[in-house]
Amino acid sequence: MAASCSAGFLDYVFPTLMSEYYSQVPTKEGYRFNLNDPNGSSREEIGVIMNPGTPEEQLVVMGTYSTYDEKTDTDTITMYTADKDGYKTRYQIKNRKLSGGNLKSLAG
Questions:
Q1: Of all helices (H) and strands (E), which one includes residue 24?
Q2: SS (H, E, C) the chain
Q3: How many domains does the chain contain in total?
Q4: How far apart, in whole angstroms, are the C-alpha atoms of residue 12 and residue 26?
Q5: CA distance 32 to 46
Q6: Most buried among 17, 75, 100, 105, using CB within 10 Å?
């Protein structure tokens, strides 16, 4: 996709889609995407065309997604970037429950 596209053309190719849980919006530089699932999972992503109109032109995608596991009361958050160098991720796991030691320290 050429970066010199007008916003009107992007609206035609990538129309703004919205529902109760989902939205996709074209931007001058690329797109923005959001998904919020009723189960607590979510995803946010942006895509940007870098170095438009040059031989180094590339699409760079950055985002996060999170999931919640009711059985373990754990959130998992994954951050990612995809570009000419590949797909790179980092993640974080959070347990929502407080341990016994944490509860004791909170009680004083």
A1: strand 22-26
A2: CCCCCCHHHHHHHCCCEECCCEEEEECCCEEEEEEECCCCCEEEEEEEEECCCCCCCEEEEEEEEEEEECCCCEEEEEEEEEECCEEEEEEEEEECCCCHHHHHHHHC
A3: 1
A4: 9
A5: 4
A6: 75
For 30-75, the pLDDT digits (tens) are 999 999 887 778 999 999 999 999 999 999 999 999 998 888 888 8
Residue whose structure tokens are 């797909």: 87
- Distance between CA atoms of residues 70 and 77, nearest Å: 15
Classify residue 106: in a domain, yes or no: no
Residue 108 lies in a domain: no
In a domain, 107, yes or no: no
Q: Which domain holds residue 33?
A: 7-98
Would 105 be classed as within a structural domain? Answer: no
The pTM score is 0.64
